[in-house]
Amino acid sequence: MYHTAHDSIVKPLTVNDLAAMKQRGEKITCLTAYDASFSALIDKVGVDMMLVGDSLGMVVQGQATTLPVTITDMVYHTRCVSHARRRAFVIADLPFMSYATPMVAAQNAALLMQLGGAQMVKLEGPRVDVVSFLVDQGIPVCGHLGLLPQWINQLGSYKVQGKEPAAAAKIIADAHQLQEAGAGLLVLECVPAKLAKEISAQLSIPVIGIGAGVDCDGQVLVLYDMLDIGTIKRPRFSKNFMPGAASIEAAINAYHQAVKQSQFPTVEHSY
Ligand code: KIV
Questions:
Q1: Which CATH number characterizes residue 110's domain?
Q2: Which of 50, 71, 172, 194 places its Cα 20 to 30 Å from the Cα of 210?
Q3: Is 124 in the pocket of ligand 1 (CB under 6 A)?
């Protein structure tokens, strides 16, 4: 990496830094990113993590779901993001069917890390077999429970998960199993705030919420939703941070500060 005399060398955050933030009660901020320009801006604001989400299928490619996103797409966007960041921790999604077996998952995770520069990969669902195999190869993994967009054809619609006691108990059990399998982070999407609070308190790994209430250890939003530049309807749990902000950078900073101070999400953006 080239540095001018005026540049200070900033070390990227590690999974241990994120764990330490949970330990000291500091909220972790995360936004999705898909290209170098937004990556540099998000990083400059000081957001702790960037997720190269397969949501890019919907917000960048204009697809109806995340299912058409390929590993080649993910490697390309992950490389764009990781080239421009200095400090933020970079996670990349394993797309639909790229982790059908542990070996396939390992090969695709290797592409995201070796060619894309990701520090961690994320996969949806209670795939304990895959998580433990990846962790055994030295690949850090983020779990993802609650609403699973890659399962949309089984779910039928993007709705809140874990409302019924049995469904909530299953998410709690799955969260523990993912942690035991070695997951270093967990994303909880679109679940009741009370359930997310319980899981965040029970797990030792950081729990990052999206539509999961204010008591998670951190928050993530889809960048295009919070800047209100998407072509699809913003979900109820998201918030447009542009009103009142003088620039995109100011809106990203407003989100970063609101999460750090536990002012986002409010009840209005929770279930
Ligand atoms: O793909 C994505 O952007 C995600 C977030 C919604 C968590 O997985």
A1: 3.20.20.60
A2: 71
A3: no
Domain count, the chain: 1
Cα separations (Å) of 68 from 60, 148, 223, 229?
A: 12, 15, 20, 21
Domain range for residue 96? 5-269
- Ligand 1 contact via 32 beta carbon (within 6 Å): yes
**Which secondary-structure segment (H or E) carries 141?**
strand 141-146
Q: Which one is catalytic: 189, 198, 249, 268?
A: 189
- Report field, pTM of the whole predicted structure over 0.70: yes
For residue 82, give both structure tokens. 């990781």
Residue that is written with structure tokens 């590690």 in the block: 14
CA of 99 to the centre of ligand 1 (A): 16
How do residues 9-55 score in pLDDT, each as one tens digit? Answer: 789 999 999 999 999 999 999 999 999 999 999 999 999 999 999 99
Contacts of 236 (CB under 8 A, 6+ apart): 211, 269
